[in-house]
Design goal:
The complex is a heterodimer. By secondary structure, chain A is of the alpha/beta class. Chain A has eight helices and 18 strands. Chain A has two domains: 6-245, 3-Layer(aba) Sandwich (Rossmann fold), CATH 3.40.50.300; 261-380, abc- transporter (atp binding component) like domain (Coagulation Factor XIII, Chain A, domain 1). The N and C termini of chain A lie far apart (61 Å). Classes of the chains: A alpha/beta, B mainly alpha. The A-B interface holds A 17-18, 20, 23, 26-27, 29-30, 33-34, 74, 77-81, 97-98, 101-102, 104, 106-107, 111, 114-115, 118-119, 121-124, 127 and B 7-8, 10-11, 13-15, 17-19, 21-22, 25-26, 29-30, 98-99, 101-105, 169, 172-173, 253, 256-257, 259-260, 262-264.
C-alpha cells in the first residue's frame, strides 16, 4: 500500500505580530514592510511549527487558551500569513470556524449563499449547481428569500454550515464538534460528519473536549506558548496534557498548604476500613467504614460530607453529617482542634468497578465546602448486574 | 498549470461580480429613493454651479458655442466617479475588516468592487445626462463617443491605481482617509472641471497640466464638444501609460502590504 497523500505540510512555520500600538511604531513597521527589512516584533504567536497531516489521518489540536491554536488554524486556512516557514496544502480546505462570516444582514439568504460560496473560491456555474443541495441541507424554508437580519442566530449558523460543507472539502477545520442549531440539525451535522470521515475525509479539530480528540483523531498536537509541546498518538498526547494540568493545579495549591496556618477546615486523615492507602479494594456487599479527622481552626465542631462517585466523576451517593444530625467528636489532648468521624455503610452493594470515596470538610453550619481527601475504591466481584448499585430486590 | 489558473480566474470573476453587486445594492439599501440619490447628487451640484457661475458671476466662456452646463457636465461626472471611487476604495479593506480577518480571498477584489461600483453609478449618470443634453439641442458630436469611452477607461485605471495604494496604506495608517476629503476639494478646483484648460492663464497652464486628470477631462470635451475625436485619441496616450505604470506600482505596494493586513486590523 502506498503512503497516504500528505494534505498539509508545515515547515518551520512562525508568526510574529509587529508593533502597532503607537503611530510612530506603525510608521516604522510600514517602512520596514516596504523596504523588506525584518519587522519590529511585538510578540511571537507561533514559533517553528513542523506538522504533517496525511489524508484520512485526522489531527487534534489541544492547548490552553492563548497558546496559539487559533493562529495555527488561521495560518493553515491562509487567513494569517506566516512570518517565516512554509505551508503547503494539497486539496480544498473548508473551515467551520467562522460560520456565516461572509454574510451581509441586508441581503437575502439566497444572495448570501452566493457571496459566501464565491468567497470560498467557487466559480459561478458550480455555485448554481450546488444551491439546491445547500437549500436542502439548511432547510430554512421560505425564509431563504428574506433578508438575513430577520433570521434567528440558529438559522444563520445552519446556512453557514450548509455552505461550508457543500464544497466537498479534503480538509475540514473546526473547533468544538458542531454544537450548532437545534436537536435535529445537530443530528444532521453529526451524520454529515460521520459520513465525511467514513468517506476518507480529514479533520483538523481544535477542542478542549479531549474525549472528542481521542475519539475522532489519530494524532494530536499540543500547542504551548506557540510551540508544539507534544505530538503523537492522540491518546498519549491527551494523557500528557492532562498530567501537565494536574501538576499545575498541585503547584498552584502548594503554597496554601502549610497545615498549621490554614484558616479553614481541612480533612487531616482518612481511612477506609482502617486502611490509609490511597487505593482500597473491597469485595462487593461487604461493609465499608470511612473514618477520619478534621482540623477546625476556629475550634467549633465541623461538618463533613461523604460522597461516592464513579471513576469518571459521576456521583453515586452523598450525604452530610449535619443532615443526619451527627456531631463530630473532638479528640482528647494533645490533639489540637481535631474532630473525628466514622461513617459506616453496612452492606455496600456497589457493582464491581472503580470508584472514589471523597470526604469534604465543611464549616460548622454545613454551608461552606472546603478541602477534600479522595481515596480510590475498587469493588471486586462477579456480579453480572447492570448499572451502578445493586438495589435490594426479589422476583415473584 | 493553465487549467488551475483559469479556474482561479473564473472564481475571482465570480467573487468580484458578487462584491460589485453587493456594493451597488447595499449602498442605498433601505433608502426610499435608492438609486435616485446616486444619480441626483451630481445633478444638484451642477445646478448650484450653474446658479453661482452663470447667474450670479455671469461667467462667459470664450471661443465656444456650448453652454456652461454642458461644459461642466462633461467633466463633472468623470470627476465624481473618480473621487468617489478613490474614497470608497480607500476604506474598502478597513470597512470589511471582519471578512479580511476571517476568510481567505484576494483582498484587492474589495477595492476593485468599490471602484467599479462608483464608475457604474456615475457612468450611468453621465449617459443619462448626455442624452438629456443632446435631446435639449446641445450640439454634441456623437462620433466622439469612442474617445469618451476610452477616457472613462483611463479614469477607471487611474482610480484603481490610486485606490489600491490608499486602501493598503489606510490599513496601516488611519490618517489616509480623513486627508482625502480636503485634498479632493483642492484638486477639484485645480482640475479644469468648472472651466476649460484654455481659460487658464498661459503662465499657469503647464502647472495645471501636471495633473493627470486634466488629460482625461480635456479629450472628452474635445471629442464631444469640438468634434476633434482623432486629436483627442492621440492625447489619451500619455495618461493611459501613466495610469498603467501607477497601477503596476500600487499593485506591488498592495501585494506587499496585503499579507500583513490581518496584523493591523
Amino acid at each position: 500500500m502506498s503512503a497516504p497523500r500528505t494534505l498539509i505540510r508545515l515547515q518551520g512555520v512562525g508568526k510574529s505580530y509587529p508593533t502597532a500600538s503607537t503611530v510612530g511604531a506603525r510608521l516604522r513597521t510600514l517602512g520596514a514592510l516596504l523596504a523588506g527589512r525584518p519587522l519590529p516584533v511585538a510578540f511571537h504567536a507561533l514559533t517553528s511549527i513542523d506538522l504533517e497531516v496525511h489524508a484520512g489521518e485526522s489531527l487534534g489540536i489541544i492547548g490552553v487558551n492563548g497558546a496559539g491554536k487559533s493562529t495555527l488554524l488561521k495560518a493553515i486556512t491562509g487567513v494569517v500569513h506566516p512570518s517565516c516557514g512554509q505551508i503547503t496544502l494539497a486539496g480544498r480546505v473548508s473551515a467551520l470556524l467562522e460560520l456565516g462570516a461572509g454574510f451581509h444582514p441586508e441581503h437575502t439568504g439566497r444572495q448570501n449563499i452566493f457571496l459566501a460560496a464565491a468567497l470560498m473560491g467557487l466559480p459561478e456555474h458550480e455555485i448554481r449547481a450546488r444551491v439546491p443541495d445547500i437549500l436542502a441541507f439548511a432547510d430554512i424554508g421560505e425564509h431563504i428569500d428574506q433578508p438575513l437580519k430577520h433570521y434567528s442566530s440558529g438559522m444563520v449558523v445552519r446556512l453557514g454550515f450548509a455552505v461550508a460543507t457543500c464544497v466537498a472539502p479534503d480538509i475540514l477545520i473546526t473547533d468544538e464538534i458542531l454544537s450548532v442549531g437545534d436537536e435535529s440539525f445537530q443530528r444532521k451535522c453529526s451524520a454529515w460528519m460521520e459520513n465525511y470521515l467514513a468517506g476518507g475525509g480529514t479533520l483538523l479539530l481544535c477542542s478542549h473536549i479531549l474525549y472528542h480528540i481521542e475519539k475522532l483523531c489519530r494524532h494530536a498536537a499540543w500547542i504551548h506558548d506557540g510551540r508544539i509541546r507534544a505530538y503523537g498518538e492522540a491518546s498519549a498526547v491527551c494523557r500528557e496534557y492532562i498530567a501537565w494540568h494536574e501538576a499545575r493545579q498541585v503547584e498552584e495549591k502548594a503554597p496554601a498548604a502549610p497545615a498549621a496556618t490554614v484558616d479553614f477546615n481541612v480533612v487531616k486523615h482518612l481511612t477506609l476500613n482502617g486502611s490509609a492507602e490511597e487505593t482500597f479494594t473491597l469485595a462487593m456487599g461487604e461493609a465499608l467504614e470511612v473514618a477520619g479527622t478534621v482540623f477546625a481552626p476556629d475550634g467549633r465542631a465541623p461538618a463533613v460530607a461523604i460522597g461516592i462517585v464513579k471513576a469518571d466523576g459521576q456521583p453515586v451517593y452523598g450525604t452530610v453529617s449535619d443532615i443526619d444530625g451527627y456531631q463530630l467528636q473532638p479528640l482528647p489532648a494533645p490533639a489540637d482542634r481535631l474532630f473525628a468521624f466514622t461513617f459506616v455503610l453496612p452492606e455496600l452493594d456497589l457493582l464491581p468497578g472503580h470508584y472514589e470515596v471523597r470526604a469534604h470538610a465543611m464549616d460548622a453550619e454545613g454551608y461552606r465546602l472546603f478541602d477534600a481527601i479522595i481515596h480510590r475504591l475498587v469493588v471486586t466481584g462477579t456480579s453480572r448486574d447492570m448499572g451502578v448499585y445493586r438495589l435490594p430486590h426479589y422476583w415473584r | 498549470m493553465p487549467i488551475a489558473l483559469l479556474a482561479r480566474a473564473r472564481a475571482s470573476t465570480t467573487l468580484l461580480r458578487s462584491f460589485v453587486r453587493r456594493e451597488l445594492t447595499t449602498r442605498y439599501a433601505g433608502t426610499l429613493l435608492g438609486g435616485v440619490w446616486a444619480l441626483g447628487q451630481p445633478v444638484l451640484l451642477l445646478a448650484i454651479y450653474a446658479f453661482v457661475f452663470r447667474t450670479v458671476f455671469k461667467v462667459q466662456i470664450p471661443d465656444t458655442n456650448v453652454s456652461f452646463v454642458t461644459l461642466v457636465a462633461c467633466a463633472l461626472w468623470p470627476w465624481m466617479a473618480f473621487q468617489e471611487a478613490v474614497q470608497r476604495g480607500t476604506v474598502a479593506i478597513t470597512a470589511n475588516a471582519e471578512l479580511v480577518r476571517k476568510i481567505r480571498f484576494p483582498h484587492h477584489l474589495l477595492v476593485y468592487a468599490a471602484v467599479l461600483g462608483s464608475f457604474i453609478i456615475h457612468g450611468a449618470g453621465f449617459i443619462a445626462v448626455a442624452l438629456v443634453l443632446a435631446l435639449a439641442g446641445e450640439p454634441l458630436h456623437l462620433a466622439g463617443l469612442p474617445v469618451v469611452l476610452a477616457a472613462w477607461a483611463v479614469a477607471l485605471l487611474l482610480a484603481l491605481a490610486v485606490a489600491l495604494a490608499t486602501a493598503a496604506l489606510q490599513v496601516v495608517i488611519k490618517d489616509v482617509e480623513p486627508a482625502l476629503g480636503p485634498l479632493f476639494m483642492l484638486l477639484f478646483y485645480a482640475t479644469p472641471v468648472l472651466y476649460p484648460l484654455s481659460m487658464v492663464p498661459d503662465m499657469l497652464r503647464p502647472w495645471v497640466a501636471l495633473n493627470p486628470f486634466v488629460h482625461v477631462v480635456e479629450p472628452i470635451r474635445a471629442a464631444l464638444l469640438d468634434g476633434e475625436a482623432l486629436a483627442a485619441f492621440a492625447d489619451l496616450w500619455p495618461p493611459t501609460l501613466l495610469a498603467l505604470v501607477l497601477l503596476a506600482c500600487s499593485r506591488w505596494l498592495f501585494r506587499r502590504l496585503a499579507v500583513y493586513f490581518q496584523d493591523f486590523l
